[in-house]
Specification:
By secondary structure, the chain is α+β, with helices and mostly antiparallel strands. It folds into four domains: about 130 residues, Beta-Lactamase; about 100 residues, Beta-Lactamase (2-Layer Sandwich); about 80 residues, Signal transduction histidine kinase, dimerisation/phosphotransfer (DHp) domain (Helix Hairpins), CATH 1.10.287; about 150 residues, 2-Layer Sandwich (Heat Shock Protein 90), CATH 3.30.565.10. Helix content is about 45%, strand content about 25%. The strands form four sheets. Strands 2-1-5-4-3 form a five-stranded antiparallel β-sheet, with helices on both faces. A five-stranded mixed β-sheet has the order 11-13-14-16-15, with helices on one face. Strands 6-9-8-7 form a four-stranded antiparallel β-sheet, sandwiched between helices. The chain is elongated and about 160 Å long.
Amino acid sequence: MFEQNAQAVLELVDARDDQAQRLIDSLYDYAIIMLDVSGRVRSWNSGAERIKGYRREEILGRHFSVFYPPEDVVVGRSERELRTAEKEGRFEEEGWRVRKSGERFWANVILTTMRDAKGQLIGFAKVTRDLTERRKAEEQLRQSEERFRLLVTSVKDYAIFMVGPDGRVESWNAGAQRIKGYEAGEIIGQSITRFYPDELVAQGRPWALLHEAAESGHVEDVGWRVRKDGTPFWADVVITALRDESGQLRGFAKVTRDLTDRKRAEEERLRLAQAQESIRLRDEFLAIASHELKTPLTALQLQLQSLQIRGESLAPGVSAKLDRAIHSTERLAGLIETLLDVSRLSTGQLTLRQERMELLATVKDVTERLQEAAAQADCPVVVREGPLLEGTWDRLRIEQVVSNLLSNAFKYAAGSPVRLSVSREGTEAILVIHDKGPGIPEKDLHRLFKRFERAAPMKHYGGLGLGLYVTREIVQAHGGSISVENAAEGGARFTVRLPL
C-alpha cells in the first residue's frame, strides 16, 4: 500500500501539477523530495521537514548523503543507491538515516528514476517514511520472545515443551532433558507415548488427556511417567491447548514436574505416622496389660508367701517347689513393673519424688539386698569406700538405677567380680559400675540404651531388653547422663552422672 501511494504521488510530481504539489506538501507522514541526477535536493515537503528536521531553505541544493550515518557516507552508500535506481528504475530498502539533530531513525526509503519524454534521466523522486516506532515495537517483541525462549529453555525444574495436534514433540527445554533424560535431537518428532508406562499407553491415556485438553482448554494429571532409561517417576502434568485467532487447534503446551521425592516423603510420613500409631497402641496395651496382670499376681504372691510361712507342715519337696514359684513370681513382678515404667515414660507420666539423700549409703543398701542374686551369679560385689555425697534425687528411682545396672552385670558377666564406686566431679555425683565380663561388641554400644535392644542373643539371656532403656530415662529425668564403654583392663564400665 505504501509503495502504491508513493508511486501515485510520484506520478503527480512528474506531472508538475500545482494541485499535486499542494497535496504533496500536505502529506505529513512522508518525506517526499526531488533529487537531481547528482543527488542534490531540488524540492522539499512538510513531511520531509518533520521527519528529517531541515527547513526548505536549509536543505535545497545539498547532497542527500547528509541523511546517511557517517559510516555509510564513507563507503559511498548513497551513490550506490542512485546508481542502482538508475539501472533498475527504482531502489527500496529499510535502514538507519540521520536527522538534522544527529538523531538516527529507522526509515523505509524508495528511490525512483524520473525521465523525460525521450527517456533521458532528469532526476530522482525519493519517498521516506519514519518507521522508528514500528521498529522499536518489533524489537521489543523480538526481545520479549527471546527472553521467553531463554526462560523456557533454561528452566530445569520443569519439563516445558510443545506438542503438535498429532501428539508429537515439537520443542524441548533443559528441564525436559533433565527430568525425562532425552536430548532434543532424540525426542523432537517422536510421540508423547514414550513418556507413559505401557499399561497407560494400552489404555489410550495419552490421547485421552490430549482430547480432554482440546475440549476444555487444559487438563491436569498426576501419575507415573517413564524416563528414557525406563525408570518410573511420579509427575504432575498440565496440558494446555493452543489455538490461533480463528480458533484452530495448533497444538499443546505440556508442563511436567517431577514429584517423585515429594511422593516418597509423603509415603515416608505416612509410614512414620502408622508406626507412631502402632507404638501408641502397643504402649497403651502394655499399660493396660501390666495393670491387669499386676492385681492377680499380687494376690498369687500373697498366697505363696502364706504357704511359705506354713512350710513345716508341707509335704517333702513341696517347699523347694514353693521357693521356685515365689522366685518366678518375683521375677514376673519385676518384668511387669518394667513394662509399667516404659508405659509411664512413653506417656510422659514418670514423676520424681525428690528428697535429700546420701548416694553411697543408697548404693550399699541396694548391694546388700542383691547379695543373694550376686551369689547365684557368682559375682562378688565390691563397693569402694568414698566420700559421702548428698544430693536431691528420687530415692526409689536411684535405687532402681543401681539395681538395674547390677542385675545387668550379674546376667552378662556371671562368674566375674563387679566393682562400684561413688565420687564427685564439680557439681556432679559420679557412679561407676565395672564388671569383669566379656564386654560389649563395639557395634552394639550405640544402641544399648534403646527399647527392646540387647547386646546378646535372646536365646542365651532372658528379659525384655528394657532395663537399660528405663535406667537411661530415669537418669535423664534427673538431668544426668549415662554412658557405657569397654574398659581397657576388660569388662564393661557404666558411668552415671547426676547433678547434685
